[in-house]
Amino acid sequence: MEGGVIVAEEEQYAIEMIGITKRFPGIVANDNVTLRLKKGEIHALLGENGAGKSTLMSVLFGLYQAEEGIIKKDGKEVHITDPNVANDLGIGMVHQHFKLVQCFTVLDNIILGVETTKHGFLQKEEARKKIEEAEEKYGLKVDLDAKVEDITVGMQQRTEILKMLYRQAEILIFDEPTAVLTPQEIDSLLTIIKNLRDGGKTIILITHKLEEIKKVADRCAILRRGKLIGVYDVATMDTKKMASLMVGHDISLSIDKAPAKFGKVILDVQDLHVENEDHFEVVGGVSFQIHAGEIFAIAGVSGNGQTEIADAVTGLLPAKSGKILLDGTDITDMDIRKRTRQGISYIPEDRQNVGLILDFALADDLALRNYYEEPFEQKQVLQKGTFNSFGDRLISKYDIRSANGNTTIVRSMSGGNQQKAIVGREIEQNAKLTIFVQPTRGLDIGAIDNIHRHILAERDRGKAVLLISLELDEVMQLADTIGVIYNGHIGKIAPAAEFTKEEVGEYMMGVRQ
After folding, report:
1. Is residue 33 included in any domain, yes or no?
2. Are residues 236 and 274 in the same domain?
3. What are the residue ranges of helices labelled H in 225-359?
4. β-strand partners of 483
5. Does residue 260 fall inside a structural domain?
6. Of the candidates 237, 293, 245, which has an alpha carbon nearest to the alpha carbon of residue 458?
7. What are phi and psi of 208, to 5 degrees?
8. Are residues 59 and 204 in the same domain?
9. What is the Cα–Cα distance from 275 to 271, expressed in whole angstroms?
10. Residue 117: strand pairing partners
11. According to the model, what pLDDT value does residue 373 have?
């Protein structure tokens, strides 16, 4: 009933997911969840890592099949057996990691798989006209003839949205859409999402950024440990209440950071040049220093050389030229193990392919840095009791949630809990320098708060911290010093207090040099 008038379900709801239960071995990912989406609304989906958000949307998009429950579209029950069925029903998904062919043009990516042909020839002009109409209607301008590899991340995301619109999608699922965008691109995307709603589309927005929910969402569904806690009107709820409902207890949204106490120089990078695997120079003459007790953050849009700097410091990539000194020792040509023993810990950007062995038990992954040393190894025999006791301590200390404790296969854990495992393992090394690359990407607010406090604790113990993050709020909150990178060059290095958020964004986009 709305305003005293009874509204038929098929008129009121675009999508109904009723009593959805999805189980995996050892865990109920969705526990009798009912979610109803009104036509023409932006409906946010909020919850901790492992709360069941992505699973629920994967059921809606046909990637998983629920054991219990039904799905209705426009009041009629539907059976979504795979993503092609979802597309046919007008349900589209803009994935966090884009599904684009880099060497194709924007136009070719948009029409790929649903090309219009006549007598065996592609009818691109007809497609172009249709896409240009969508661009104009929703404020999605992008160069249709540019290759995807040559356009910004923000433009690639617009391409993904246009792909869904070209396929006549009426319900759009956005999975962490702002994770890799600059502040300016985020503002632009949020405007586009509102334009889509105003144009009659129904939007599902999965995000951990509460301020974004407040800016654009009409309602918010909160999941916790697989159960629906409730659906709330965003306009009447503050972010602190959202956060506490999500994690089940009160949580602070600000960080109390004591003034930094700089010590001696721990990392000294001098005129560093690095090439990628294709022998293309991606870091061109970078120099900076990090002191004991300092968080030095490199801010930049993905793909501007910041990850290669971290890989060069750790030894994963060789330096083409320049020097890297750790606590006064030249480590430029050292192998990886020697560097780590010299005092480097590394939380990599790609947690699954670089940070973990996914088919190992959790205890084994947590011991990867120490397994060849006593007490983990004695007389060349691995001590499983030591593995398990060490694992138990880290699971408790870093709140690593797993179905079967130490014996849990890491592949079965949520991405957020995989990340907690790496952070815990690396911090426990008590290194001189800890490198965090995208340490909170895709994590919920509770996990982010936990990891931020560990990063600050490292600094306050007198460790040097190199933070590489695409999250500008994270950089501004944590950093003592910021270096902004663009096209392989650090344009400005200054104390964090001397930067504004907008200024950092302009350096990230190359507007300022």
Report:
1. yes
2. no
3. 239-247, 306-314, 336-343
4. 298, 493
5. no
6. 293
7. -100, 0
8. yes
9. 13
10. 122
11. 87
Residue 3 has pLDDT above 70, yes or no: no
In sign, the C-alpha dihedral spanning 451, 457, 458, 459 is positive
CA nearest 78: which of 494, 407, 87? 87
pLDDT for residue 139: 85
Please indicate, yes or no, if residue 4 is contained in any of the structural domains.
Answer: no
- pTM over 0.70, yes/no: no
Helices and strands: H and E segment counts in the chain: 17, 24
Per the structure, how many domains does the chain have? 2
**Hey, which residues does 16 pair with through a beta bridge?**
36, 72
Q: Same domain for 230 and 335?
A: no
Rounded Cα distance, 204 and 165, in Å: 15
**Contact present, 106 and 146 (Cβ < 8 Å):** yes
Looking at the structure, tell me whether residues 138 and 269 fall in a common domain.
no
Query: Which amino acid is present at 134?
Result: A
- Other Cβ atoms less than 10 A from the Cβ of 495: the count is 11
| Domain containing residue 458 | 265-508
Query: What pLDDT, on the 0 to 100 scale, is given for residue 4?
Result: 39
Residues 390, 300 share a domain: yes
Domain boundary among 247, 281, 303: 247
Side-chain-side CA neighbours of residue 113 (13 Å)? 12
Same domain, 226 and 308: no
Angle subtended by helix axes 501-508 and 183-198, to nearest 10: 90
